[in-house]
C-alpha cells in the first residue's frame, strides 16, 4: 500500500470514528432556557456569544425546492443556512423535533459545505403547493432532461463531497424513493492537513424542506432572525419583471427577502404562528382590487382557509360589488366541473353576502323588478350554485 493510500485509510478511519462518537453540532448542544428573551437583537447577540466558544455560528443547512415543471414536479433544491439556537429559541415546539429528524422527511448530518446529498430526492411531486406559491414555473416546452440536470446539480456550490446521510422518509410524503446512503469518502482540503476536514465546525444538520418553496423558507429564516418580512405581489396583479440590477441591489441591502404572502400564510398556519398569519393576511387584503377579486375568490388557496375566504367575500361585497355582480355568472360558467365543485362553499357564501348587502340597500327588489343587473345576476348565480351542488352530489354518489 502506498503512503498516500495509507494516509487515505487513516483519514477514513478517523472520520468514521468521529461520526460514531460525535453527537450534535456545537451550537445545537446548548439547551434553551425556559425564560429566554426572544427579542431578535438579543437572540442574535447571544448566538454570537455562544459561537465564540463553539467556533461556529452556522450549524444548520436547509434545502428547499425552487422550481416547478410543466408536469407539476418540484425540483432544483437550493440551500439556506441557519443558526439552530435562534430557531429553537424562537419556535421550540417546531424546531426542536424538526432538527432531530422529526416529522419524517429527509434529515442528515455532514459537512455544511458539501453538495446536495445523493440520498435526498432532487425532485418530487408538487402536490400541496398553491397556484400562487413561491415556486418559479417552467414553460410548457421545458425538456425533462433539462429538469433532471437542474435538479441533480441543485446545490450550485463548490466544496467537499457529501460524506454522510441518514434520510428518514415520511410515510405521508410522496416523491422519489431515497437511494441507499453512500459512504462517500471526503477529500481533504489540503493533502498535508488532515485535521482541518475533521473539525466539528464544518459539520452540521442538513434538512430537506419538501413542503415549502425556497423563497418562502428563506424569508421565514430572515423573519425569525429579525421579525421583518417583505411580501411580493400576487400573481393576479400586474407585475413588471425585476431587472438584474434591482435583484443585485436587493441582495446587498437589509431589506427582507421577498416571498408570496399566500405561501407565508400557509407556512404560518401550519406552524401556528398567529402574528405571521395576520401579517400575511393583512398584506393579501391590501392587494385585492376590482381587477383581481374574482381571480382570488376562486383560487385554490382561498378555498382552503375560512378566514381568507371571509375576508375576500367582505371585500367583494363592500368594495367591488358592481364588478362581482356583473362578472360572477360568466366566471362561474367558465369554471371546470372540478373547480366548480371545489368552489361551492365560496360561491354560497358570496351569494349570501351579496344578498345581505343588497337587501340592506333595497337593491334586490328594484333591480329584479326592472330586469336590473344585480337581481338577474344573483338569480342566475343561485341557479349555477344549485347545479354545482348537484354535480358534487353526483361525484360523491
Task: Please explain how this structure is put together.
This protein folds into two domains: 3-34 and 57-214, no CATH class; 291-396. It is α/β, with parallel strands linked by helices. It has helices at 3-21, 40-54, 84-90, 92-98, 144-152, 194-197, 214-226, 244-251, 261-271, 274-286, 293-297, 306-318, 321-333, 337-342, 344-361, 363-369, 373-396, and strands at 60-68, 73-82, 106-111, 123-125, 136-137, 203-209, 230-231, 258-259. The strands form two sheets. Strands 1, 2, 3, 4, 5 and 6 form a six-stranded mixed β-sheet that branches. Helix 8 links the parallel strand 7 (230-231) and strand 8 (258-259). Residues 151-163 have a biased composition (Polar residues).
Search tags:
17 helices; BTB domain-containing protein; two-stranded parallel sheet; 6-stranded mixed sheet; 397 residues; 2 domains; alpha/beta; elongated; disordered C terminus
Radius of gyration: 26 Å
Helix content, binned percent: 40-55%
Q: Which series of helices and strands comes N to C?
A: HHEEHHEEEHHEHEHEHHHHHHHHH
Instruction: Give the number of DSSP strands.
Output: 8
Number of helices: 17
Largest sheet: 6 strands, mixed
Outline, from the CA principal axes? elongated
Poorly predicted tracts of residues: 19-23, 140-201, 363-375, 391-397
Q: How much of the sequence is in beta strands?
A: 5-15%
Integer average pLDDT: 75
> N- to C-terminal separation?
73 Å
How many domain modules?
Answer: 2
Based on helices, strands and strand pairing, what is the structural class?
A: alpha/beta
Amino acid at each position: 500500500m502506498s503512503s498516500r493510500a495509507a494516509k487515505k485509510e487513516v483519514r477514513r478511519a478517523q472520520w468514521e470514528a468521529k461520526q460514531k462518537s460525535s453527537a450534535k453540532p456545537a451550537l445545537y448542544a446548548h439547551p434553551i432556557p425556559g425564560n429566554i428573551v426572544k427579542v431578535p437583537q438579543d437572540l442574535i447577540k447571544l448566538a454570537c456569544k455562544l459561537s465564540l466558544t463553539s467556533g461556529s455560528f452556522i450549524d444548520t443547512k436547509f434545502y428547499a425546492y425552487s422550481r416547478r415543471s410543466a408536469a407539476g414536479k418540484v425540483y432544483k433544491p437550493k440551500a439556506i443556512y441557519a443558526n439552530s439556537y435562534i430557531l429553537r429559541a424562537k419556535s421550540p415546539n417546531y424546531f426542536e423535533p424538526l432538527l432531530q429528524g422529526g416529522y419524517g422527511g429527509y434529515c442528515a448530518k455532514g459537512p455544511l459545505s458539501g453538495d446536495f446529498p445523493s440520498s435526498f430526492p432532487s425532485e418530487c411531486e408538487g402536490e400541496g403547493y398553491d397556484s400562487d406559491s413561491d415556486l418559479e414555473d417552467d414553460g410548457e416546452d421545458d425538456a425533462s432532461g433539462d429538469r433532471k440536470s437542474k435538479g441533480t446539480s441543485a446545490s450550485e456550490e463548490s466544496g467537499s463531497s457529501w460524506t454522510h446521510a441518514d434520510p428518514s422518509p415520511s410515510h405521508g410524503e410522496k416523491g422519489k424513493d431515497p437511494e441507499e446512503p453512500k459512504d462517500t469518502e471526503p477529500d481533504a482540503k489540503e493533502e498535508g492537513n488532515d485535521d482541518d476536514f475533521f473539525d466539528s465546525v464544518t459539520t452540521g444538520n442538513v434538512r430537506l424542506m419538501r413542503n415549502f418553496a425556497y423563497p418562502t423558507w428563506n424569508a421565514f429564516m430572515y423573519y425569525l432572525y429579525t421579525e421583518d418580512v417583505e411580501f411580493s405581489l400576487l400573481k393576479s396583479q400586474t407585475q413588471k419583471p425585476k431587472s438584474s440590477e434591482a435583484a443585485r441591489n436587493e441582495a446587498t441591502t437589509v431589506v427582507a427577502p421577498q416571498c408570496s404572502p399566500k405561501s407565508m400564510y400557509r407556512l404560518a398556519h401550519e406552524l401556528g404562528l398567529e402574528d405571521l398569519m395576520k401579517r400575511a393576511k393583512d398584506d393579501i387584503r391590501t392587494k385585492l382590487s376590482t381587477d383581481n377579486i374574482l381571480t382570488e375568490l376562486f383560487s385554490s388557496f382561498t378555498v382552503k382557509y375560512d378566514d381568507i375566504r371571509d375576508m375576500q367575500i367582505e371585500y367583494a361585497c363592500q368594495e367591488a360589488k358592481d364588478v362581482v355582480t356583473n362578472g360572477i355568472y360568466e366566471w362561474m360558467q367558465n369554471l371546470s366541473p372540478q373547480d366548480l365543485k371545489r368552489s361551492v362553499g365560496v360561491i354560497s357564501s358570496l351569494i349570501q353576502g351579496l344578498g345581505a348587502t343588497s337587501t340592506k340597500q333595497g337593491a334586490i327588489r328594484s333591480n329584479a323588478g326592472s330586469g336590473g343587473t344585480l337581481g338577474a345576476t344573483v338569480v342566475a348565480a343561485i341557479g349555477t350554485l344549485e347545479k354545482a351542488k348537484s354535480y358534487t352530489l353526483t361525484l360523491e354518489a
